[in-house]
């Protein structure tokens, strides 16, 4: 690769990584809202739940209830598994971002190499 192509690849790589980073933050935010509302509905949500028991000093919430009157605690299976859901979401986003980054960089590198002029090759037959 020529120096100009390397410089173009470095600039494109930086812009692509910033774009994927911003897109990953957006995906994480959307995924987190989906996890809270659809997959783990028992997890505490101030717009849907009312606090039943709370530590007055630390403000830690021990129990809350929904509109139907069902009480949930930290020991509820959905509440315990919420952290695993977030971990899985982060891993999926990281694998997705890394894969997309590598595929796009490989494709852009091929484009840059194809656009480069062919080097002059002075072939001299070897005399024996």
Could you please describe the fold and organization of this structure?
- The protein is mainly α and 128 residues long.
- The chain has two helices and three strands.
- It has a three-stranded antiparallel beta sheet with strand order 1-2-3, with no helix packed on it.
- Helix 1 packs antiparallel against helix 2.
- The mean pLDDT is 89.
List the helices and strands and how they pair.
Elements: H1 3-39, E1 50-54, E2 61-65, E3 71-73, H2 77-115
Task: Give short descriptive properties of this protein.
single chain, 128 residues, mainly alpha, 3-stranded antiparallel beta sheet, 3 strands, rod-shaped
Q: How many helices in DSSP terms?
A: 2
Which strand order spans the largest sheet, edge to edge or round the barrel?
A: 1-2-3
Oligomer: single chain
How do the SSEs run, as a string of H and E? HEEEH
Strand-pairing-aware structural class: mainly alpha
């Amino acid at each position: 690769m020529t120096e100009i192509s390397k410089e173009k690849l470095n600039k494109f790589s930086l812009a692509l990584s910033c774009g994927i980073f911003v897109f990953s933050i957006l995906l994480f935010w959307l995924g987190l809202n989906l996890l809270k509302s659809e997959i783990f509905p028992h997890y505490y949500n101030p717009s849907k739940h009312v606090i039943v028991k709370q530590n007055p000093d630390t403000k830690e919430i021990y129990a809350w209830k929904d509109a139907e009157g069902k009480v949930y605690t930290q020991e509820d299976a959905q509440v315990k598994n919420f952290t695993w859901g977030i971990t899985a979401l982060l891993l999926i986003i990281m694998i997705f971002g890394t894969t997309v980054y590598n595929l796009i960089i490989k494709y852009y590198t091929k484009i840059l190499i194809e656009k480069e002029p062919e080097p002059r090759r002075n072939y001299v037959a070897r005399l024996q």
